[in-house]
Amino acid sequence: MTSRIVISSNTSWSVVNFRARLIRTLLEHGHEVTVLAPRDKHAPRLVHPGCRVIDLEIDVNGTNPARDLALVGRYFKHLRRERPAAYLGYTVKPNVYGSIAAHLLGIPVINNVSGLGRAFIAPGPVTHVVRLLYRVALRRSHTVFFQNAEDRSLFLECGLVPRGRDALLPGSGVDLEHFTPATTTAVPGRGEPDFTFLLIGRMLRDKGVEEFALAARALRGRFPHARFQLLGHIDPGNPGTIPRERIREWEDEHLLEYLGEADDVRPIIARADCVVLPSYREGVPRSLLEAAAMGKPLLASDAVGCRDAVTDRITGLLCKPGNAHDLAMKMSEMICFEPDRRSRMGAAGRRKMETSFDEHIVIARYLEAIGRCSGGRPGQQVANTSLS
């Protein structure tokens, strides 16, 4: 039986990059899909026969209660008009305020907790408010997906989600047909090939961008031909953003290169020798999954979410979170590995993606959850088939 599904995230960009295959699959199964998200330059890429995009104003980084209450009202208005068979929420505000509106209307909710953000990385007064909001928003959800076991355990232990409605996904999964193994293309430089480290992610302190720059400075003398590149969005509204001026200072110091943003990251990953993400906490970072699918060795922090994507010493290396010195040591080790060892790491990473992180696993879990929204105990069957 086909039905209407509403998907909401805090940016159209995130829907395009992380949910496009799910949307296509839902459309192929005959469902109608409506996307509620702030309209940006990526929104037109979501428009397909049977899929509509509704511009939804979300103050992503704001904490004004009046504006958040108004957001609940906007969700209520759109969901009452759409009357979907299920509401799929991603990112914090759609998960909280969209879910509250859906519950008021009796619409089944499927949440995806893809990462816990600053409130959980550095607990403080805001953390208590965030936990209360999650508890209210998730208590009646049909299914709450988590991208790593540690986040799931935290929510269960704190009573933020009812037991039996939780389920585990392999991150957002990765499209193994789109991201395929690539041969590193060495770029000549001053008599010997460069070795390129690439960090992909939003330019935030929590992503370890500062540590990446400090490690580049520490290695510059020993490895003058090494290159350090940043790829990702600068969000001036985020309190944790690394300002463009700061990145420009690093460029002027010849520490690293900022590549801006890219709709297709594959050519940039293909030219890298190692993909790095020294993040403080993640769901499961898509950038690492994509790089591993392309056969690249990884270097990531031994932090929640990141260690799910990397098998230490097998598919890459893990470093201490927030520790630029240890990051530099692991970068040095990666450079000094024999090329054949790095190739074996990349091949092992590809096998790991094929075994555990195929995007089809994620989509199958969603189809199952949507199918059970019309009957049965909320979350029971999906939870029983979660990854362990």
What fraction, in percent, of the residue positions are helical?
Answer: 40-55%
Number of strands: 15
Number of helices: 15
Percentage of β-strand residues: 15-25%
Q: What's the level 1 CATH class of the largest domain?
A: Alpha Beta
Shape: globular
Question: Which fold does the CATH topology of the largest domain refer to?
Answer: Rossmann fold
Rg computed from alpha carbons, rounded to a whole number of angstroms: 21 Å
CATH architecture grouping of the largest domain: 3-Layer(aba) Sandwich
Provide the domain count: 2
Helices and strands, in order, run as EHEEHEHEHHEHEEEEHEHEHEHEHEHHHH
Average predicted local confidence, pLDDT: 90
What is the assembly state of the chains in this entry?
A: single chain
CATH superfamily of the largest domain: Glycogen Phosphorylase B
Distance N to C terminus: 31 Å
**How would you sum up the major sheet?**
7 strands, parallel
What class do helices, strands and sheet pairing give?
alpha/beta
Describe it.
α2 packs across α3 (92-104) and α7 crosses α12 (324-336). α3 (92-104) links the parallel β4 and β5 (109-113). The longest helix is centred in the first third of the chain and has 18 residues, at 65-82. This protein starts with a strand and ends with a helix. The strands form 3 sheets. Strands 3-2-1-4-5-6-7 form a 7-stranded parallel beta sheet, with helices on both faces. Strands 12-11-10-13-14-15 form a 6-stranded parallel beta sheet, with helices on both faces. It is built from 15 helices and 15 strands. By secondary structure, the protein is α/β, with parallel strands linked by helices. The model is unreliable at 185-192 and 376-388 (pLDDT under 50). It is globular, with a radius of gyration of 21 Å. The chain has 2 domains: 4-173 and 359-384, 3-Layer(aba) Sandwich (Rossmann fold), CATH 3.40.50; 188-356, Rossmann fold.
